[in-house]
What we know:
The structure holds two protein chains of two kinds. Chain A is an alpha+beta fold.
Amino acid sequence: MSGTITIDGKTVPFTGGQTIMDAALEAGVYIPHLCHNPEFKPHGSCKLCVVEANGRNVTSCTMPASPDMVVINDTPELNEDRKALVQMLFVEGNHICPACEATGNCQLQAAGYYLHMQSPRFMHFYPPRRVDASHPDIFLDLNRCILCELCVRASRDIDKKNVFGISGRGIDSHLVVNSESGKLGDTNMTVTDKAAHVCPTGAILIKRKGYTMPIGKRTFDQKTLREFHLEQQKRVEPKDGPDGG
Amino acid sequence: MMQPPDLPDIEQRLAIICERHDCEPHRLLQILIEVQEMYAFIPPEAITTIGKHLNLPRVSVEGAAGFYSFLSLEPAGQYRVLFSDNVTDRMLGNEELMRHFCNRLWLEPGKVSEDELVSTDLTSCTGMCDQGPAALINGWPVTRLNRERIDLIADLILSKSPVSDWPPTLFEVNDNIRRTARLLGEPFEPGSAIRAALMRGADATLGELKLSRLRGRGGAGYVTADKWTACRNSQGAARYIVCNADEGEPGTFKDRILLNRYADMVFEGMTVGARLLGSAKGFLYLRGEYRYLLKKLEEVLVQRCEAGLLGSNILGEPGFDFDIEIHLGAGAYICGEESALIESLEGRRGRPRNRPPYPAQHGYLDQPTVVNNVETFACAAMIAACGGKWFRETGTRDSSGSKVLSIAGDCTLPGIYEYPFGVSVQKILEDCGAQEPYAVQVGGPSGILVSWQEFERTISFEDLPTAGAFTIFRRGRDILEAVRNYAHFFAHESCGFCTPCRVGTQLQKKIVDKIANGHGTASDLEELKQLGHLMRTMSHCGLGHTAPNPVLDMLQKFPGAYEQKLTSLSFEPAFDLDAALATARRITGRDDPWAHLP
């Protein structure tokens, strides 16, 4: 099945099996997102990419495109809801941008800027979260985890190691690692794993690399989240390459 | 912090359990439930060992074990006492009883006693609302709690008497059937529906189902014949029939009675479905709270096999093979959502799937699957036996047949009432002896809060759809407290997958708490409305979509419930500086004016 859909009035082609997000990114139409990364199986948890398709709200990274679908994406109302979702992600964790190693390279922070977030809006949860420095090369700081499961997907589908998983429920959902001690140092993760390089925030950091890139020259000092995501899409095309990694 | 207990032979014991389950990854949850029963928690070594036997990554086992409320990753004591915390339990004084229990045993909720003997906590509605306050003790329901019973339980625990030796009166559960109509009132001969279906043929029986206009009894009201037809028309290596007995909506307990007394009718409906769809395997997903019914249900299955109503060549029909397996849940409301239920059946975390595809095309093991409510299958059996026209004779145009309601709260005769669809709220209130009714929560917290001005409304898909809960509040009840209980329920039961529900249900809970504590302002009301909109429009599944319902209904219909509690300010910070100093005051033993902020 292939055909075209319209997104905010613009005609966008799609081919069989593509989601609304796939079709949009390929056509250079931006739908804000955090948990989606075209290199991995879609997940659909952050809900930033919710659009209205044929009058119904759907998650664009998991919803298959269908012929003549009418998609509404870039509206003040939807962007306002997206901003609220980003604010929710900020208050449920412990995000201290100015002191964070990932500042300037963080997609959550960039989403805040992109959606004109001026304040956290909601009350902070200040949850007690774990920090794990047991691995010689990788630092795990769950204070910054937004549960996008990109590391889970990367370790499972590309590294074939299943280093990460999610346990707990509801607000207590949290990342766990594949060892009885619960420590990353006791897993078989290595710094060359794909999973070490997909975190959109600063939850997974490579040790001894923190401040090699000065502030001012970091990714989102140079470009917006929109530009970054559209370029990311170009890097993974064409799709017949090996893993894209 | 408790010392990890010594666990000799754990590897051996687990090997036996895993072998018994054929080391089948889909049996993971069933294995974990057995481990929990054996050790009173899931030890870390057990997670590693199970992973090895089932060939699953350790994180997957830990992920599943951490998801379900009745599985505990920390030692929870020899006795685990979970007080049901539905709003009906609250009205009957469960908080006071829990305090009394804690005082008797020197306990703190959520913590294990120092002698590692007992722990206690709250749990979501256990489905005993007509005979509460209720609790689960090591998974077994105790009903009609009062001080005397609590004292008895405390003594039994202190004497370390095994729960199996406790007086049976503690565990007595009554059916309390108060009113029957065509489903519960007509005699049903086991085998009659299957015989009729075989005589009529599969196409004609599906035709009767269509003619009956039966709609799903789980609340959403999808036309059953359409669901079954979609499954029938889907290609697959096998088809599955799943009965959803994960009756988790607070205030609902009608499936408890259907399973206890009408199990044959339910299993027969599944078997008729199997004939129509060409399925050889069915599951009954039984909520953990109803584990006490497991033995009885398994006996019914054995009897049906012996009578030729299950197994191979059912009723002598060559090639008509169908088996039913009972699968236990372990405390997760979200597993009532059909795709989360399927995930749980497959042994994983109960996380709703992305849809499409729908279960009718890609369900259990990715094969075409029908998931229906317990009552829907019972109706299907009656339709197969008596015909679609007979079924349609009662009810309304868009809601044929009758509905079994679970009535509890402020009334003299709580229990099970079956009415033809179209009955008014007023009529029900009169029948059950409601005292000065002021509000009714129809369909549980995910349903509709009906005010006294709307009692003429009717139970039907056209007006007030419901899975069966009908919770009555008399004049003078604190509606804000009820809504607060519901807000806490949703926050506890959100699966945590999507942002709007995971965080939104927490924020909603915190804001309702703030208002109840007298710190709410007009801006908090506005925030609740906006949060409600966000959860309704952006969430992943029905839980998030309906979680704001009780809050928004209260804001619209019961201003009196919260207006007096608001402070006059248009804004008050959520952070209470003086309250934050409480710990410091406790440490220093001070409570003088200088230890407080002005």
